[in-house]
Design a protein that fits this description.
The complex is a heterotrimer. Chain A contains 27 helices and 52 strands. By secondary structure, chain A is of the alpha+beta class. Among the domains of chain A are: 1-158, Ubiquitin-like (UB roll) (Roll), CATH 3.10.20; 161-287 and 417-498, FAD/NAD(P)-binding domain; 291-413, FAD/NAD(P)-binding domain (3-Layer(bba) Sandwich), CATH 3.50.50.60; 517-580, BFD-like [2Fe-2S]-binding domain (Arc Repressor Mutant, subunit A), CATH 1.10.10.1100; 906-989, Aminomethyltransferase beta-barrel domains (Elongation Factor Tu (Ef-tu), domain 3), CATH 2.40.30.110. In chain A, strand 32 (524-526) and strand 33 (531-532) form a beta hairpin. In chain A, helix 5 (178-189) packs parallel to helix 7 (219-231), helix 14 crosses helix 15 (547-554) and helix 20 crosses helix 25. Chain B is of the alpha+beta class. Chain B has a four-stranded antiparallel sheet with strand order 3-4-5-6, with helices on one face. In chain B, strands 1-2 form a two-stranded antiparallel sheet. Chain C has two domains: 12-23 and 106-180, Gyrase A, domain 2 (2-Layer Sandwich); 26-105, 2-Layer Sandwich (Alpha-Beta Plaits), CATH 3.30.70.1520. In chain C, 22% of the residues lie in helices and 33% in strands. The longest helix of chain C is centred in the C-terminal third of the chain and has 13 residues, at 168-180. Chain C starts with 11 loop residues before the first strand and ends in a 10-residue tail after the last helix. The mean pLDDT of chain C is 96. Classes of the chains: A alpha+beta, B alpha+beta, C alpha+beta. Chains B and C meet through loops of B and strand 9 of C.
Chain lengths: 1003, 109, 190
């Protein structure tokens, strides 16, 4: 059984107990534990069930590569699924539950799948669930959804806060092992702005566990001294619990810092996403040990050899009393030696190699450990955990030579450098046959904006597995990176490292090498996704020869661990099956992030009220305090209607329309875009921007204008006012201000850069209020100031002046069809002006109205709305706006397009009014039905509804729409689609429903 | 995530402060042009794996447009230059020729 | 007018790093030829500061000049002096192609102050805020979260920031949240 040893771990403090729960059970760990070490100390060997077969699974690793130990963490608003137990630091009150089992971890119904595994081979889902078709929706999918998926989705909104952090660095070193520390030391001493990130809570990586020495002191002491040196350097930033998650183009790197995951009191920022722009990146990310592929290698108690010694050395936890070590290399002997020295039993070291005569095997033998060479494991015995191993000849097919009882198996298939970050942005790999591993190909590195390399791999991650060369490589990489970033102070000599020499490994991809199908179909490659040696072989047989195809067919490496421990073994099996060399088969693509990062860290501050900016006008507070029911318009928030008492929205809208038409209404029109266009060439420029003529507009007058894209499609509209000889003020739609401003600047900067025109966006400088209705003039005259009479300020003119003591600019324009003044005041006085209007207007029955009343009133008048009548495919001619297309001008944006044959055709859908025969309101977007069907068998259409409302003025439904040759078909009755009901009949009518002569606005 | 040098304000700018504007050096065709010329102007675009010339807008900065010569394959940036020009500056053309001998793009090579 | 109010009416947020809306500020967008001596002269005359180089701002109290783009300078004066300043600019640049417009009310000004003020901005803007790259005098136009902003250092512990009036609420809340998120400890502190 696994248990806490008497000895103290490097990371633990046994005098401080920490209590936590697992599946509701109260357990105790110690300070410094990970959840994994604490569970193991409590003999909680099973931590989860596998994804497909629901086999019991235990922890097999001690770090980020762990495939099995995934748990649900926390509760409620702190809930987090798929937390890895090996990277979850223990804290008081931690609560975890295991995943992927029903009804319980120890007894799981889905485990029946393991007995059905013959029927669940690679590609099973693709093959099985194809037919009959209807079964997919009603039978297969619900079944798969129930049995698939890791963890649970959180049910409550996350209560924590997250942030980003943007920095620039000369050298970013990822990985705080001895190579990374040496790299940071060299870069820092060279004078570079250096950042060093380490994903765990501890500096030093593996070297201190493996007993290396550096500069004649223990690795542990060297690490402590070096960290202290680095901390004192002002140009170096050190970060633990901060993972280099991804390397992107042009030196962009994401670092994922976990600030409170290890704390009971999770106050403050939980995760911080570092967005680093680094001139040079050094990836000193170490290596991951590979499992060996033998039957039942997934039983709880079978672990990586390095993990077995990590738990003893770092946490003071043993994984078993009797541990069989199985290996193809010398390094795993360190585990045997460590366990033996900790007082634990190692009955045998099973070494697949014919000879084991290096220093480490000699040390093991000297401790009295039995070493069996040329042997392998035929199978592991046990059901829910290891009870023993059957030993066979590695060269054979699995005939059992001997059975040895044990409760732990520590396996090592050699090491794979962590090349993920090197590869994220295009760094290539080469196969090192001597060490049986892919390593960074330094001749083909990722290149940056200048075409030069910007990522360097260092230390073990660069294929230098031994301390002396690894630490020197790290130092030299740090120095070279600093130099490439423009810093070349001499950093001194590299540290000198030393460890016990090792003999070469012998690649072992299957154990025994001639394993039978029965053994191969129990030899796991990908533990999290339940992919076995036999699955990969089947994929190859069925023609999935590309490693990318085989991956998707078998799901090898597609789980949350992204195949960290399984990929190399899997592709070696694939290569063998294909009779190809491993480097010819290649690896799958390494994609960021290295391990999953929280979605919330990506969102950063963009949550709750900061999810996105809400643009507010100066009158916004008044709207909120007075019943505004808001709608978003672009990023603006505009009142749709103002609700009074128990009114419904519909009732409020009707009231607002009727009041504006009979008394007086107020609209906050501040959001309308306002662009000043000024200069000697401004008239010429506006004649290009607008379809109609703006250069001839007299000073003091207003003109409605249209803008088209070069495609000829309507893009925006609004009223233009001539301010003085050289200046025009162009109103845009609410959503169009920034877009049209940018559009104008684009043409001025990139096409007509010799034209003397300046544009300024003054949208937010002004609060603008539309005073609308028969009593509008009376109100302004009461407030006093400027002359707003018909004679002095007629329709479609503007004037500067004061109203009620406010400096204003007043435009006689109308989007409602009523007598209307749009009045602009400086934004700082917008609220005061609004209040003054309301005060003075009380006797006239003044009421503010919202955007829906605005829409209804403009539709009653047959005025088009950009975004309703237009959708990016509509040209002015479609909306009967030919009058606004200047024939005098040689050119304007969109003019050439309007002469294209399809645009100029008479055979287009055009704007009409629509009136239902029964007075009801047509559904928005409804299609006018035509005879017959199209080539796809769908019913033909001959038009569609673009705007549709209940008109409180006319007390019936009114609509606008575009209909095939519509204006020629007045009076015709069409049928319109009506989802879930009978088609609705409507008559084609003039789109101007109200005050056709325009008498009301021109008084 | 690119970093491009804005020649207008002299800063190296993060891609998130920029807005791409498509192909550079388009020649506008207006009224009087043939259907073919107008089609080319409106719709026909280079789509190279390799050297490319693009428009970029420093939208969250100085608000100015500039042009960039870039490799779409490696993301190497050969240079950025003001938008008020009909063809890339010679030093950028020379740099591209050094890095990508035999390149061509539209009428440029 | 006396009833003029700034976007957030002087809202403040307490903490180790404080955020404070600085009330109304007179601002004029002046577009023209920045090399023109008359333009430079009227700008420096109005504000009492040197004309800023590319990417820089010179500010003293409420008055200052900021380099916005190769053909735009932001002229900052007291809010009640804008009309007067516009007149002076018009007079000085009469006959020369330029555009000067009052944008005082289109903007909000905030001052963020405290020992880790660089951290607060680095949480929100994708720019280099290391003292080697960003020091008093440097003027940056970038973004805060999702909105455009321009900012510069008043001194080693305070940064002044301008954003559009309509998003002042958002920008303030963002800065407040970043300040409350605490010190990161990456930059050397002033």
């Amino acid at each position: 059984m696994s248990t806490r040893l008497a000895r103290e771990g490097r990371f633990t403090n046994k005098s401080k107990a920490v209590s936590f729960t697992f599946n509701g059970k109260n357990l105790r760990g110690v300070e410094g534990d990970t959840l994994a070490s604490a569970l193991l100390a409590n003999d909680q060997m099973i931590v989860g069930r596998s994804f497909k077969y629901h086999r019991p699974r235990g922890v097999i690793a001690s770090g980020a590569e762990e495939p099995n130990g995934l748990v649900n963490l926390g509760k409620g608003a702190s809930f987090e699924p798929n937390a890895r137990v090996t990277t979850t630091e223990l804290f008081d009150g931690l609560s975890a539950t295991s995943q992927n089992h029903f009804p319980s971890l120890e007894f799981d119904v889905g485990a029946i799948n393991t007995h059905l595994s013959r029927f669940l081979p690679a590609g099973f889902y693709y093959k099985m669930f194809m037919f009959p078709r209807p079964f997919w929706k009603h039978v297969y999918e619900p079944f798969i959804r129930k049995s698939a998926g890791l963890g649970k989705a959180p049910k409550e909104r996350d209560e924590h806060t997250y942030e980003h952090f943007n920095i620039h660095a000369d050298v970013l070193v990822i990985g705080g092992g001895i190579a990374g520390l040496a790299a940071a030391l060299a870069a820092g001493r060279s004078g570079a702005r250096t950042v060093l990130m380490e994903q765990t809570a501890h500096w030093g990586g593996r070297a201190p566990v493996d007993g290396a020495t550096v500069d004649d002191i223990s690795a542990d002491e060297w690490v402590k001294a070096t960290v202290k040196t680095l901390e004192e350097m002002p140009n170096v930033t050190l970060r633990t619990r901060c993972m280099g998650a991804g390397v992107y183009d042009h030196g962009y790197v994401l670092g994922y810092e976990r600030l409170t995951d290890h704390l009971t009191q999770k106050d403050g920022t939980k995760h911080r996403l570092w967005r680093v722009r680094a001139k040079q990146v050094v990836t000193a990310t170490g290596a991951i040990e590979r499992p060996l592929s033998f039957a039942a290698n997934d039983l709880p108690g079978v672990v990586l050899a390095s993990a077995a010694r990590d738990y003893v050395v770092n946490f003071g936890v043993s994984l078993g009393d009797r541990t069989v070590v199985v290996t193809n290399n010398d390094d795993a002997y360190r585990t045997a030696i460590t366990l033996k020295e900790a007082g634990l039993d190692v009955p045998v070291i099973v070494d697949a190699r014919a000879h084991a005569d290096g220093d480490l095997p000699a040390q093991a033998r000297a401790l009295g450990i039995r070493v069996e060479t040329g042997k392998g494991i035929a199978k592991v015995k046990g059901s829910k955990r290891v009870t023993g191993v059957a030993i066979c000849a590695q060269a054979g097919e699995g005939a059992v030579l001997e059975e040895i009882s044990c409760d732990c198996v520590a396996m090592s298939g050699g090491w794979s450098p962590i090349v993920h970050l090197w590869s994220h942005c295009g760094g290539k790999l080469s196969w090192d046959p001597d060490q049986a591993m892919f390593r960074p190909d330094l001749d083909r590195p990722p290149t940056g904006a200048d075409g030069q390399p910007y990522v360097m791999a260092a230390g073990v991650a660069n294929g230098h597995l031994f301390t002396a060369e690894g630490i020197a490589d790290g130092f030299m990489a740090g120095r070279a990176a600093a130099k490439a970033a423009g810093h070349d102070k001499k950093p001194g000599q590299p540290p000198a490292g030393e460890d016990t020499p090792e003999n070469p490994l012998e690649p072992v991809w299957l154990m025994p090498q001639g394993a039978s199908y029965a053994l191969r179909s129990k030899a796991w490659l990908d533990f999290q996704n339940d992919v076995k040696v036999s699955d990969v072989q089947l994929a190859a047989q069925e023609g999935f020869e590309s490693v990318e195809h085989a991956k998707r067919y078998t799901t090898l490496g597609m789980a949350t661990d992204q195949g960290k421990i399984s990929n190399i073994n899997g592709l070696a099996i694939l290569a063998d099956q294909l009779g190809a060399e491993i480097p010819d088969v290649g690896t799958t693509t390494f994609r960021p992030p290295y391990t999953p990062i929280s979605m919330a860290s990506i969102a950063g501050p963009a949550q709750r009220e900061l999810f996105q900016p809400v643009r507010k006008t100066p009158m916004s507070d008044w709207h909120t305090a007075n019943g505004a029911f808001y709608e978003p318009v672009g990023q603006w928030r505009r009142p749709y209607a103002y609700l009074r008492g128990s009114e419904t929205v519909h009732e409020a809208v009707n009231r607002e329309v009727v009041n504006a038409r009979t008394n007086i209404g107020l609209l906050d029109a501040s959001t309308l875009g306002k662009l000043i266009v000024s200069g000697p060439d401004a008239g010429k420029f506006l004649d290009m921007m607008y379809t109609n003529m703006m250069s001839t507009l007299p000073v003091g007058k207003c003109r409605y204008g249209l803008m088209c894209t070069e495609n000829g499609f309507l893009s925006d509209d609004g009223v233009v006012a001539r301010i003085d000889e050289d200046s025009w003020l162009c109103h845009t739609t609410t959503g169009g201000a920034e877009r049209i401003h940018g559009w104008m600047e684009d043409w001025l900067q990139c096409e007509w850069w010799d034209w003397k025109v300046y544009v300024a966006n003054v949208t937010e400088q002004y609060a603008q209020v539309a005073v609308v209705g028969p009593h509008a003039r009376k109100l302004l005259e009461k407030m006093g100031g400027m002359d707003v009479s018909k004679e002095t300020l007629p329709f479609m003119q503007w004037a500067n002046g004061t109203i009620g003591g406010f400096d204003t600019r007043v435009y006689r324009i109308s989007f409602s069809g009523e007598l209307s003044y749009e009045i602009a005041v400086p934004a700082s006085q917008g609220r005061a002006f609004w209040d003054a209007l309301l005060d003075a207007g009380e006797e006239f029955g003044i009421m503010p109205y919202g955007t829906e009343a605005l829409h209804i009133m403009r539709a009653e008048k047959g005025f088009i709305m950009i975004g309703d009548e237009t959708d990016g495919t509509i040209i002015p001619q479609d909306l009967n706006l030919q009058w606004a297309l200047s024939k005098k001008k040689e050119d304007y944006l969109g003019k050439r397009a309007h002469s294209r044959s399809h645009m100029a055709s008479a055979d287009r859908w055009k704007l009409v009014g629509l009136e239902t025969l029964d007075g009801s309101v047509l559904p928005d977007g409804a299609y006018a039905i035509a005879d017959g069907v199209n080539a796809n068998g769908q019913g033909n259409t001959q038009g569609r509804v673009t705007s549709t409302y209940h008109s409180p003025t006319l007390k019936k439904g009114i609509a606008m729409g575009i209909v095939h040759k519509g204006p020629d078909r007045m009076g015709e009755v069409l049928s319109f689609t009506n989802i879930g009901g009978e088609p609705i009949k409507a008559r084609i009518v003039d789109p101007v429903f109200y005050d056709k002569e325009g008498e009301k606005q021109n008084v | 995530m690119l970093t491009l040098h804005c020649p207008n304000c002299g800063r190296d700018v993060d891609e998130t402060d920029l807005h791409g504007g498509g192909e550079a050096h388009l020649k506008r065709f207006g009224p009087g042009s043939s259907d073919k010329e107008f089609e080319d102007y409106l719709f026909m675009r280079e789509n190279p794996k390799g050297v490319h010339f693009e428009r970029w807008h420093h939208s969250f900065g100085c608000g100015k447009w500039f042009l960039a010569a870039r490799c779409t394959n490696t993301l190497e940036v050969f240079g950025t230059y003001p938008a008020q020009t009909l063809e890339p500056p010679k030093e950028i053309m020379d740099k591209i020729s050094g890095a990508r001998p035999g390149w061509s793009w539209g009428a440029f090579k | 007018m006396s009833n003029a109010v700034s976007a957030l009416d002087g809202r403040t947020s307490a903490g180790d790093v404080t955020v404070c809306e600085d009330g109304l500020r007179g601002m004029i967008t002046l577009r023209g030829d920045l090399a023109n001596t008359k333009l430079k002269a009227v700008c420096t005359g109005l504000t009492g500061v040197d004309f800023p180089a590319q990417g820089h701002a010179n500010c003293v109290g409420q008055q200052g000049l900021a380099w916005m783009s190769p053909d735009e300078v932001l002229v900052m004066v007291h809010h009640d002096k804008v009309a007067d300043a516009l007149e002076k600019i018009a007079k000085a640049l009469k006959g020369q192609h330029h555009l000067a417009v009052n944008v005082s009310d289109a903007r909000a000004v905030m001052i963020v102050e405290g020992p880790y003020v660089r951290d607060v901005f680095a949480k929100l803007a994708p720019v280099d805020l290391h003292p080697d790259a960003f020091a008093p005098g440097t003027f940056l136009r970038s973004r805060l979260g999702q909105v455009a902003a321009a900012f510069w250092m008043r001194d080693a512990q305070s940064i002044e920031v301008i954003c559009f009036r309509s998003v002042a609420d958002y920008a303030f809340a963002l800065l407040e949240a970043a300040a409350k998120g605490g010190r990161v400890g990456h930059f050397p502190e002033g």
